[in-house]
Write a structure and sequence with these properties.
Blueprint: H1 37-58, H2 68-71, H3 74-86, H4 97-110, H5 116-133, H6 139-150, H7 160-179, H8 188-205, H9 210-228, H10 293-313, H11 318-334, H12 342-359, H13 365-382, H14 387-401, H15 410-424, H16 429-438, H17 446-457, H18 467-489, H19 518-544, H20 546-555, H21 565-574, H22 580-588, H23 592-603, H24 612-620, H25 629-646, H26 654-672, H27 682-688, H28 700-712, H29 730-742, H30 756-777, H31 781-800, H32 804-817, H33 829-835, H34 837-853, H35 860-873, E1 895-896, E2 899-900, H36 922-930, H37 943-959, H38 961-966, H39 973-987, H40 997-1016, H41 1021-1038, H42 1044-1060, H43 1068-1074, H44 1076-1079, H45 1083-1104, H46 1111-1122, H47 1131-1142, H48 1153-1165, H49 1171-1194, H50 1200-1223, H51 1229-1251, H52 1261-1270
Antiparallel strand pairs: 1-2
Helix pairs in contact: 1-3, 1-5, 3-4, 4-5, 4-6, 5-7, 6-7, 6-8, 7-8, 7-9, 8-9, 8-10, 9-11, 10-11, 10-12, 11-13, 12-14, 13-15, 14-15, 14-17, 15-18, 17-18, 17-30, 18-30, 18-31, 19-20, 21-23, 23-25, 24-29, 25-26, 26-28, 30-31, 30-32, 31-32, 31-34, 32-34, 32-35, 33-37, 34-37, 35-39, ...
């Protein structure tokens, strides 16, 4: 990554532009690889000459006229010697050449005689020679360079510009050392020296020019990056036990930066941490280990200490911001490798995070932003080691600053919200907060509070939409998107069983069996959350009535049936939301059980190696100290027993702890009670506590420290109720660090949605409301599209986790934004819809959800249908919305005299009585706009109107509304049933009086859709049939005049029967029984549709005669055909259907014989039509005798079943003969004669069967006699 170019200065190269190992043009080929020794010698000589030239002009040395050589200054002599050395034949092969070549320049840098100009040019030459040496430069040489730069001196009185140039070149030299290939050989001490020297320059630069200030800080930054970039390469044990502990500059309380330095008045920069002889390059024999963890620990500790110094001195934001940037770079480069090294990790966990908690409340947005950036990096790399620290950060910083009700400035709120959104963009952040904190009984519900914060922050309450609202929305949608992405990774939906506790188990000691197993881990986490919820409910009961609260917890198996002190004490200790006044009263009660609970409660605290006042603060934060002296006595006794048990070396006995604790409480009241006018002095406090330590005095320093601690920081004896946003006091931080050692393992989120169901159930309601409010208030397309992404994400999650109620709520919200439900009169609703981007996006989103996730929509179907009906009224629906799966293969119906032929009755083509709609479908609506009525001239539509209509057309096409119904066969049963019920509900209850055209049109359209989904779901007709039948029955029975609705109902019912009879034999009787509704039609309605009804019944018979088995079914069908005998238009079709059944006995059966004979008789008696039809009817009756004879012969045996069968056949014979007998009395001669002939044929056949066994008993003597006498 490139670095920004520093502002240029003559002769000064920017760090950013300096290559790691550059070489001068003159020595480019003469590097340390020995490629061109002569070139290297020339280059070094040139650098020495350059330094000599400046020295001769500025060095103070004695003048000797006789012999100039003897008068040469030692620095001049060493440079001349260097020029001779590099050209000697043995120099090129000497391993000591690099050190020897650098030493004259280093001497010049160290020399007090050298002025700023000499020092500056020496530093430039040093860098050039180092670059020429390249990889051959040894670690010993680098160590000498660091020592020399750290000891850099030059004479006083230099100009400011020259002095700044020296400082900048010092920094360049140090950077060159840390960037050199052999930099690792510097050793820990020299790295610390380099960093310390650099920081001293940074400090000195504050009084210098802007260029030096920026350059020095950049150099410091680069040094830190160079050092910590090596951390990932260091093994767990490497560099951990250095023989020499490196030291940074010590702290000086009198110096604002805590850096010791020695100034001798002559521009000297001398580090106190000068290296010892063992790090020199004189061949002492000691091997210097590569720098590693020791120096990194020391440097990191030094950087953290800068924050401590700032906290103590209260300087401006410049230094803490600089320190935070350096720390951030160290963490970025060290990354997850920090956890491998306990000392570094401990610094991060304790000292760094403690300082971050303090600076997190800074009013400076720069500091707050940097703190949040560091915590984000720590979360990314080290979150498994920082569970409680992260909880504290979000509880005390983010949740506090992001809300105005806690007094944060707007810029603080904005920075905190930006940081929270950055965390939310981490895919597993929220699920980890939920699993580790919300599901831990000792932690806050951080996930829930953060989700609520985002939802509330997105609401623009009594104010316009602002960037803060949009920011919060982005955070919410990032959380939703993370859940949606995990759904994409899921192989199947996790089966989450409800959590229940069957028996009592101490909830505070429950452990996970196996964290590496997802099933065990998820079960454990969900059980902990269940326990936490129950504890909070129990706390609510306890706050109203302590006795009932404990009984509730016993009933849920969180407390044992017989209460014991430990379980009640742990309930008080680990349950949030308890009324601390009630807890204090309970613990201070004199009852024996309460006293036992008090002592068990004290046992839950860890006071090991803790100061008495700190321990007392922690103890009294968990409840309100009672006001009665006896109760206070009992409470402090329990506290002192526990404290002395863990720290027996602190006092002579536990009574000392008790007396001193009581004294501290009295001091606290004295110092912080406004009613006390005369305050206790330090001497008074010490005097009051004489001879309490077993007859002797406590150390004065200890008492003095206790006194000042109480004076500075009051002990809150009335702590906040519940879990408010507290400040991180020192005592709380100590307690946090204690708990962090024993807290449960951090659960790292994975790519599976194991916990998303529970999380989404918590946040879904506020999330939908927040997205909807922003969508409502915004007019920017980018924001609207972001909201659409949120809506689709919510729908995806709801569908995956079977949260039908959530999906219904989402559908309701979207329907409001479509504007389709707005019944206010709009002059051009289609144009208005096309111009409204928000409405079009909402409509497209609504129907996208209905198509993708319709399986999980329940009551929301009603709202979806309201929108569809509105589009229908506007003529914007595609023509095939109500089509069913078989429409594509059906032939278009032919029309005969304006009525549909029986060949095809389609829900989309059935003629409608009355005035049809002018146009339906998108193209029809669009063409209306373009057409001009010749009788009523209209203005030409404008380009804007045409564009709006085109946008409307495109939106409706994208919605794919027809797919909701044509693809309904794939819906889940519950959703399909709700869709059908919604259609019936939308259609409304039929009225006997005429309804308005709009209401009737709606009812017709809904019925079309209902029939369509019925036909599309023939395999699940049982699920729908009852509702469909009842709806059609209501229409039929409430209609007294022909209308489109009853017509659609009748022919829809017939069509359902036609289509489903071949597939649903088990439902055939139900389907055929439904046709009895036709018989209940009002006479006027039946007469209007008689011909078409007969055509459809005939179609049904011809197509499905073989599927009609029952007597009831045949009765209904034949009855529908027989009633047409006297209808002039329908009788012919009805008779043809009867002929189809009876001809040659093809479809005659014992089930339908009697009904067919009766129908034939009615057609024979009918005067409608020609006599020829009556003759044919008589022939059908006469020919049917053959079927009777055949059935009689087929009935074998003499058992009861055979006897019943023969008896039924005899009854059929009798019905046949009686029908012919009646027709033989017809007034029409031709019919009468033909009837007599037919009767004679039948009687003759009967006599033949009666005389031949075994069928002689087929017709009884009495029956035969009655028929013969009639004849």
């Amino acid at each position: 990554m490139g670095r920004p170019r520093m502002p240029g200065a003559a002769g000064i190269d920017s760090i950013a532009e300096e290559p790691p190992h550059s070489s001068s043009p003159s020595g480019g080929a003469a590097g340390g690889d020995g490629g061109d020794p002569a070139g290297l010698a020339c280059a070094i000589s040139a650098e020495a000459s350059a330094v000599l030239a400046v020295m001769r002009r500025s060095l103070r040395h004695p003048r000797a006229a006789a012999d100039d050589a003897a008068a040469d200054h030692p620095l001049v002599s060493s440079l001349k010697a260097l020029r001779r050395l590099v050209f000697s034949p043995a120099a090129a092969a000497s391993p000591s050449l690099p050190v020897a070549a650098l030493r004259p320049f280093l001497d010049a840098i160290r020399s007090e005689d050298a002025g700023a100009a000499v020092t500056s040019v020496s530093l430039v030459a040093l860098r050039e020679v180092m670059a020429l040496m390249g990889p051959s430069l040894p670690g010993a040489a680098l160590r000498e360079v660091v020592d020399a730069v750290a000891s850099c001196r030059f004479e006083a009185g230099a100009e400011a510009a020259a002095e700044e140039a020296v400082m900048m070149r010092m920094l360049q030299a140090l950077l060159a050392c840390l960037r050199a290939p052999a930099a690792a050989a510097l050793g820990d001490q020299h790295v610390c020296t380099a960093v310390n020297t650099c920081f001293r320059v940074v400090h000195q630069a504050t009084a210098k020019g802007e260029l030096l200030q920026q350059f020095s800080r950049h150099a410091m930054h680069e040094l830190i990056r160079c050092v910590f970039a090596r951390l990932p390469q260091i093994g767990i044990g490497d560099g951990g036990d250095g023989s020499v502990k490196p030291e940074m500059g010590g702290k000086d309380k009198n110096h604002p930066f805590g850096i010791k330095q020695m100034e001798n008045g002559n521009g000297s920069y001398i580090s106190e941490a000068v290296t010892s002889d063992e790090y020199s390059a004189d061949g002492s024999g000691l091997v210097v280990e590569p720098y590693g963890i020791p120096c990194m620990v020391e440097i990191f500790h030094f950087l953290c200490s800068l924050l401590n110094v700032v906290e103590q001195t209260g300087v401006d934001e410049d230094l803490p911001l600089f320190a935070l940037k350096l720390i951030n770079s160290a963490i970025e480069l060290g990354g997850s490798s920090i956890r491998k090294h306990p000392k570094l990790l401990s610094l991060v966990q304790d000292e760094l995070f403690r300082n971050l908690m303090q600076f997190g409340l800074s009013v400076s947005p720069l500091i707050l932003s940097m703190v949040c950036t560091i915590v984000l990096n720590l979360y990314h790399h080290l979150r498994t080691e920082l569970k409680l620290q992260l909880e504290a950060f979000f509880s005390c910083i983010i949740l506090r600053l992001a809300q105005p009700r806690f007094g944060a400035a707007y810029h603080q709120q904005e920075v905190a919200m930006e940081a929270l959104v950055d965390f939310c963009r981490q895919k597993n952040f929220m699920v980890e907060m939920y699993a580790n904190l919300d599901c831990d009984i000792t932690c806050r519900n951080v996930f829930e509070e953060l989700a609520n914060l985002l939802s509330k922050s997105a609401f623009p309450i009594n104010c316009p939409l602002s960037s803060m609202h949009i920011l919060a929305l982005e955070g919410l949608i990032s959380v939703i998107q993370g859940m949606a992405d995990r759904i994409g990774n899921a192989t199947s939906r996790p089966e989450l069983m409800p959590v229940e506790l069957d028996e009592y188990t101490p909830f505070w000691i429950v452990k996970c069996e196996n964290f590496s197993n997802p099933q065990h881990r998820v079960k454990f986490v969900r059980q902990r959350k269940y326990v936490k919820r129950r504890l909070m409910i129990g706390a609510d009961h306890f706050n109203r009535d302590p006795k009932k609260g404990l009984e509730f917890l016993q009933g849920t198996h969180l407390l044992p049936e017989k209460l014991d002190p430990q379980s009640v004490a742990c309930f008080f200790r680990y349950t949030a939301g308890l009324d601390k006044n009630l807890v204090g009263d309970f613990l201070g009660n004199h009852d024996e059980f309460c006293v036992q609970v008090l002592h068990e409660f004290a046992q839950t605290f860890d006071f090991l190696e803790m100061n008495l006042d700190t321990a007392l603060r922690l103890f009294l934060e968990t409840f309100r100290l009672p006001g009665e002296s006896q109760k206070i006595q009992r409470v402090l006794e329990a506290f002192s027993d526990r404290y002395y048990e863990q720290s027996p070396q602190a006092f002579a006995n536990k009574d000392t702890a008790l007396v001193l604790a009581y004294s501290i409480i009295m001091l606290n009241t004295d110092q912080h009670n406004m009613q006390v006018k005369k305050k206790m002095t330090e001497e008074d406090f010490i005097k009051n506590n004489r001879n309490i330590n077993g007859g002797s005095d406590l150390p004065r320093e200890m008492l003095s420290e206790l006194y000042h601690s109480i004076c500075r920081n009051e002990i809150k004896t009335t702590p906040e109720q519940g879990m408010g946003f507290f400040e991180m006091s020192p005592s709380r931080w100590i307690d946090l660090m204690r708990k962090s050692k024993s807290t449960s393992l951090y659960i790292v989120g994975d790519s599976q949605p194991f916990l998303d169901h529970d999380m989404f159930a918590i946040m879904s309601g506020p999330t939908i409301a927040a997205i909807a409010v922003v969508f409502d208030h915004s007019e920017h397309e980018e924001v609207l599209l972001t909201c659409v992404d949120g809506f689709l994400g919510v729908a995806k999650i709801s569908a995956f986790h079977r949260l039908e109620d959530v999906l219904d709520d989402l559908v309701v919200s979207l329907c409001k934004f479509t504007t389709l439900l707005n019944t206010s009169l709009v002059e051009e609703p289609v144009t208005a819809f096309g111009d409204d981007l928000k409405a079009r996006l909402a409509t497209e989103t609504l129907f996208t959800i209905a198509n993708r996730y319709g399986d999980y929509i329940r009551t929301g179907w009603r709202n979806v249908l309201d929108c569809i009906l509105r589009l229908h009224k506007l003529g914007l629906l595609p023509a095939r919305v109500a089509s069913d799966a078989a429409d594509d293969s059906e032939v278009s119906p032919e029309t005969v005299q304006g009525k549909s032929t029986p060949s095809s009755i389609s829900t989309s083509h059935t003629p409608v009585m009355g005035t049809p709609r002018k146009s339906s479908g998108l193209m029809g609506r669009f063409s209306q706009l373009l057409s001009l009525d010749s009788e009523e001239p209209r203005s030409q539509p404008t380009e804007q109107q045409l564009a709006a209509h085109q946008r409307t057309l495109q939106t409706i096409q994208k919605c794919r509304i027809d797919s909701i119904f044509t693809e309904s066969k794939f819906l889940q049963p519950d959703s399909l049933l709700q869709l059908a019920r919604a259609l019936i509900w939308a259609a409304g209850r039929p009225q006997k009086v005429a309804s308005s055209p709009d209401d009737e049109d709606t009812a017709v359209f809904c019925l079309e859709l209902l029939i369509a989904i019925t036909l599309n779901n023939r395999d699940r007709i049982v699920l729908l049939w009852q509702g469909v039948y009842e709806h059609i029955a209501n229409i039929v029975q409430s209609t007294v005049m022909p209308c489109a609705l009853v017509e659609k109902a009748i022919f829809g019912l017939l069509r359902i029967c036609q289509r489903l009879l071949p597939y649903k034999e088990n439902l055939a009787d139900e389907l055929l029984r439904s046709l009895q509704l036709v018989l209940k039609l009002d006479a006027r309605v039946a007469d209007a549709y008689c011909e078409n009804i007969t055509q459809e019944v005939a179609r049904l018979v011809k197509a499905n005669a073989g599927h009609i088995k029952s007597q009831m079914g045949w009765r209904t069908v034949v009855l529908l055909l027989s009633i047409t005998a006297r209808h002039p238009d329908a009788s012919e079709v009805g008779f043809e259907a009867i002929m189809y059944i009876m001809s040659e006995g093809a479809h005659l059966s014992l089930s339908n014989y009697a009904f067919c004979i009766e129908a034939s008789r009615q057609f024979a008696e009918s005067r409608v039509g020609l006599i020829d039809r009556s003759i044919r009817a008589l022939d059908l009756m006469a020919d049917s005798a053959n079927s009777l004879a055949r059935w009689s012969q087929e009935t074998k045996g003499t058992g009861e079943e055979a006897e019943k069968g023969l008896e039924a056949i005899r009854e059929m014979w009798l019905k046949l003969l009686q029908a012919l007998k009646k027709l033989s009395l017809d007034q029409r001669e031709e019919v009468r004669n033909h009837a007599l002939t037919s009767l004679e044929r039948c009687l003759t056949a009967t006599q033949g069967y009666a005389s031949s066994p075994p069928h002689g008993h087929m017709l009884s003597i009495s029956s035969y006699s009655r028929c013969s006498m009639t004849y």
